TrEMBL record:
InterPro entries: NTF2-like_dom_sf (IPR032710), SEC_C_motif (IPR004027), YchJ-like (IPR023006), YchJ-like_M (IPR048469). Belongs to the UPF0225 family. Residues 31-127 form the YchJ-like middle NTF2-like domain. This is UPF0225 protein SAMN04324258_4182. It comes from the Bacteria. Pfam families: SEC-C, YchJ_M-like. It comes from Krasilnikoviella flava.
Amino acid sequence: MLDSDRCPCGSGDTYGACCGPLHRGDRPAPTAEALMRSRYSAFAVGDAAYLGATWHPRTRPPSLELDDDQEWWRLTVLATHAGGPFDDGGEVEFVAQYRSASTGERGRLHEVSRFVREGGRWFYVDGDVGA
Ligand SMILES: [Zn+2]
């Protein structure tokens, strides 16, 4: 992904002005929503290391394998609760849409994700997956 490409998270910004600097560790996500968007983008570009680094140690899986066949093509943020620069926690409700590269079959993930901020950094904790 080039910095001049459209950011996968759908913010309308370029990757270099949106999730790119977060993936590279140039700056931390300022809000829970920004972290959520950058994690979605990490799925889209296949950055497993970033997903591990932004997963809270308490709930982080021992290893993370990304499915190469799954193409994440659209993110819609439905709602946010807290998660601002002065909060210690927050929630983001979103729908992420994907398709299988091999079969073209489409699917969607509707989740309310929970985040905490520790030491000035946001972490994904867990989420409730809905219909
Ligand atoms: Zn982005």
